[in-house]
Design a protein that fits this description.
- Helix 1 runs antiparallel to helix 2, helix 2 packs antiparallel against helix 3 and helix 3 packs antiparallel against helix 4.
- The mean pLDDT is about 85.
- The protein has four helices and no strands.
- The chain is about 70% helix and about 0% strand.
């Protein structure tokens, strides 16, 4: 953060003055009277606007990156589910990782919805992005998340069946996520 910000207070230098300037051996200010100076209010406003715009761009990039990471998160859950069906090695280990993946997916969707000024992460602003995010949330809450949670809670043939159902949903779900990412890129580029 910023504790304080200092700037000069003179926007003009007098041509002739009687008092002795204490910070120069000649007793005169270091700049000649014809020196062009920037008004400190304008300089501070320009600095502030630059910082604000860079913060916004960083937030938009973080949102796009987080949304895109959900594609990989989906594939990671598929990989872990497959590992939970494996024979010849401990299938419980990948299954134990799935609740953390579910939690991470929930957390990212929540951040995309509300934003996070501390990161920064800018939430979607236009109707198309909102609609695409809603479609991803709806598919996650209504279909994909219950399949993964059921897999974690299930055993044997129930897991095989849930994994097959999950496989049938993955392509469409990842396509929804990709549509969201593209809509965010277009929206942010237009702004």
């Amino acid at each position: 953060g910023v504790e304080s910000l200092w700037t000069f207070e003179h926007v003009m230098i007098p041509i002739d003055y009687q008092s002795k300037y204490p910070y120069n051996a000649t007793g005169k200010m270091g700049a000649p009277p014809e020196t062009n100076l920037v008004d400190p209010l304008i300089a501070l406003a320009a600095i502030g606007m630059t910082l604000y715009l860079s913060w916004q761009l960083e937030g938009m990039a973080a949102a796009i990156n987080d949304a895109g990471s959900q594609r990989m998160g989906t594939y990671r859950m598929a990989y872990l589910m497959e590992g939970g069906l494996a024979t010849g090695r401990d299938p419980s280990r990948p299954v134990r990782s799935l609740p953390a993946e579910i939690e991470r997916f929930d957390w990212v969707l929540q951040d995309l919805r509300r934003g996070d000024p501390a990161r920064p992460l800018a939430p979607p602003r236009d109707a198309e992005v909102e609609q695409k995010l809603h479609r991803v949330e709806e598919a996650w809450q209504g279909t994909v998340r219950p399949l993964v949670a059921g897999f974690v809670a299930g055993q044997g043939e129930a897991r095989v069946s849930l994994r097959q159902e999950f496989d049938g949903e993955v392509e469409g779900f990842v396509a929804r996520i990709n549509d969201l990412v593209l809509a965010m890129e277009h929206s942010y580029a237009a702004n």
